[in-house]
Amino acid sequence: MLQAFQQRRWSLVLLWVLIVAAIIAAPAVLPVFRLNLLGRFLSLAIVALGIDLIWGFTGLLSLGQGIFFALGGYAMAMYLQLNSSADLPNGIPEFFSLYGVNRLPGFWEPFHSPVFTLVAIWLIPAVLAAVLGNLVFRNRIKGVYFSILTQAALLVFFNFFNGQQKLINGTNGLKTDVTQLFGQMVGSPEMQRGFFWLTAVVVILAWLFLRWVVRGRFGDVLIAIRDDEPRLRFAGYNPTLFKTIVFAVAGGLAGVGGALYTVQSGIVSPQFMTVPFSIEMVIWVAVGGRGTLVGAILGAVVINYAKSLVSEAMPQSWLFIQGGLFILVVTALPEGVIGWFRGDGPRNWMNRLGIARRSPTYPRLEREGQQEVQP
Amino acid sequence: MTQPLLELRQITVSFDGFLALRDLNLSLQPGELRAVIGPNGAGKTTFLDVITGKTAPTEGAVVFKGRSLIGTLEHRIARLGIGRKFQSPRVFEKLSVQENLALAVSQPKQPWSLLLGGLNGQQRDRVQQLMSIVNLQNRADWVAGALSHGQKQWLEIAMLVGQDPDLLLVDEPVAGLTDEETDLTADLLKSLAGDHTVLVIEHDMEFIRRLDSPVTVLHQGHVLCEGKMDQVQADPRVIEVYLGTTEEDNG
Q1: What's the pTM?
Q2: Residue A265 falls within a domain, yes or no?
Q3: Does domain B6-250 fall into CATH 3.90.45.10?
Q4: Among A320, A369, B27, B155, which one is least packed by beta carbons within 10 Å?
Q5: Which of A108, A100, A91 is nearest to A174 (CA)?
Q6: Does pLDDT of B246 surpass 60?
Q7: What is the total count of domains within chain A?
Q8: Taking CA atoms, what residue in B is nearest to A213?
Q9: CB < 8 Å to B127, chain A
């Protein structure tokens, strides 16, 4: 028992040493283009962590995380646009002149402030998620109906943002790569390297934060909500409150991920709120392993990296591979890759290959006077 | 007589015209142990649903400690001091025995207090104590889903006790238990009565007899009769509903 525990601990420490080393070494090893991709995928990992919290632990399958992701991105892009438009006619971002807008719309004003923007990136999505979530949860809408509602909300936001040229440049989105930050071009290699580090640090912080959240009784309540919500009510807990909180946290994380993704991809547009993209987010978590935070991170990074590599080689084939991956996970690895490793997966395989150490049977355990072990 | 702990007045529950409960009256004194029996479909579980807020009665009043429960949400009713054990054991299968009990004894049950600290010493002792009462000390770290049916039953009873409610509603606690376990459960429930008010729903007549408590017989959503087990069993109406009648007899 103890030995197995120590082994597990070691492999975990090793895994983290590798990850940290990879993050530190990445800018030296990877060309700027690849580094930038990795940075983007790490920002997606932040979104995936949020999805894991609400889906993997709490059982809320949201197909609308793109809303919060895009809102974070827009908040960031609005600040950057304003920050770079002082010398332009009217002192407002260039695109407004295309639609004959001479005055900055009121809701843009607060985004002159970097402090406001830093708060808005996570707070606006979190508050929106809390409000939407609470409305749904208090009416005890759950399961597939919740998923459908989140997807419907996503479509509403997508169509709204697409149509608002005069407010936020509609379908064209807001560009950030040619904007200025700290007197430098956001799209410059130096800035991009900085954003990569920042993203990596945020991923680790988000992971640590969620680990703290899901360990202990709060996390136990989330699992209890996932497995038997009505029963939990009779134990004196209010599931609506817990669900609202975690949905808001996931929304906030998606906002942060969206902001970091935006500065590294150079643009935010309503494309962030398409239905397939939000579904892809869910697939990353499913493949990596629901309920395993590391799985969400690895799922997001590895799948997206594979996507970009495959798409470069065989542009048409990625969708088939992604679909196949999803089918594989649903049928063969319901716990995801990390879940499979943590569960009985490896042992079952070794059993099949005939190289597993056989577990002792009960009579033998009794003869040896050992304590019972968990099957 | 003191003020009853729980009083149900003229409760009627209609599901699309089907009367699951009709004009049901019942009151429980503090510290009382009460058994409720009745054939299948008599409305026993609906009756618990009404008390715990799962089902809103179409008509009538539920009064607990002098306070109406109508329109109160389930978790608030639970916090007022009404605990419930379900018919088939409902424990949180992915959580360990210890974690299940920790959720039951946690106080207050607010997100921030769960996030910001663990159980206090007293609550930890309580969890240990509960595990030893239901003989699950050796299973503390087992996930509840790996327990046997009887152990799940007991875990759920321990969770119910850990909630420390004033009123315990226990739905079929001995279904699927061995005779020995049944006896132990009866003793446990009897020991709880006095400090707590306990209402037990059960089909097992030997178990009810062992509880040695007043019995209420439900039939077609209505209280048919109340009294000691011997009286109740001798009542011709009870015999009739349990052994079945023909349509003409009913008319």
Answers
A1: 0.88
A2: yes
A3: no
A4: A369
A5: A108
A6: no
A7: 1
A8: B115
A9: none
